[in-house]
Amino acid sequence: MNVQQKLEILADAAKYDASCASSGAKRSGNGKGVGHSDGMGICHSYTPDGRCVSLLKILLTNFCTYDCVFCVNRISSDIQRARFTPDEVVKLTLDFYKRNYIEGLFLSSGIIQSPDYTMEQLIQVAKTLRTEHHFGGYIHLKAIPGASERLIEQAGLFADRLSANIELPTQQDLVQLAPEKKTTVIESTMNKIAVRKDEADEDRRKLPSTPKFAAAGQSTQMVVGATPATDREILKTATHLYGQYKLRRIYYTGFSPYPDADARLPLKPAPLIREHRLYQSDWLMRFYGFTAAELTSEEEPSLSLTEDPKTTWAKSHPEFFPVDVNAAPREVLLRVPGIGYRNVERILSIRKYHRLLIDDLKKLHVRLKNALPYLIAIDHIPHQQPAADEAQPFTQLDLFAPLSALTGSL
Ligand code: SF4
């Protein structure tokens, strides 16, 4: 089998791993080698469903000794197999990079022989690229759960990002569908990465020449909809992983059935909108101050498929609204539907010298259709006010002040 044929098989096999976005890396070329990634990370392009396509995204091999039921590469799967040598991956990466097709490499693999052996092969690719070819592009390596601490340490020296996949939301799910995998082993690998990164960051503060370790942090992927795990359970696991291991991102991948799949798997794909709602919730938890427990409940453990989670929360908390856009603190403004994170910052800065009108919010591209029922501005109070004893605006506005006295430019 030639390299082109292997590439077709192993690039196709890698498409199921979504944990490949590459933002956050900063690596300068030294003038001798090729490539660099800077500032906001390398340039990306994304497919319409959000996958990053600017990396060469391949598996070292789709042979795997594990039998994860939801995975096409499992040992019991009847698919065509292929395996690159580390040198073939190095050559492909450099060829593609020089032709400007890619800005980096995302390299994962099925488990061959053992977690340590597999990890060694992945490291060999990254090490050769960095040390022999002075490759300055982005490298994302899969951290194989169960690989030894020594190898995780090495991997982080050559890779910008590492990711150990959690695969499924709960240990019970793993028992059912990925019998060789254990949450404790996966989390132990995440912990090794987090601890080593903390140490390296600390050392670099004291001695800036200390080598970076996984500068773009770690991420993970969770398959959604392969088991009956609820959105509440998924968000609970996400909260735990972000808090415990300082993950940069969790990627949620809706399960999609494949031919002759195991009878334990659902026949229908997880709705794409469910994946989208999980990303929205994840964003709300990381940047808007929401907790997993607020976004779902024991009685309603699934996110709405028809409405974004912030609006759902707002509708069920009338006592919180309306919010005065000219006086409410940051954490309160963040809870208003239709007002995004950046606009909250803009509002806070503008209102230091100007009291905001609806027209001002329009200029900021606030989604007024969503926001108007929940906010008060100088020239706006919502039609449907909460009952008087429930409404708790944050300031008493002088609604009768002449508007002409309040105008100003943005
Ligand atoms: S270990 Fe990874 S590649 Fe192997 S069967 Fe499980 S999910 Fe697939």
From TrEMBL:
Lineage: Bacteria, Pseudomonadati, Acidobacteriota, Terriglobia, Terriglobales
Keyword terms: Iron, Iron-sulfur, Metal-binding, S-adenosyl-L-methionine
Keyword Metal-binding assigned: yes
Protein name: DNA modification/repair radical SAM protein
Cofactors required: [4Fe-4S] cluster
GO MF terms, alphabetically ordered: catalytic activity; iron-sulfur cluster binding; metal ion binding
Iron recorded as keyword: yes
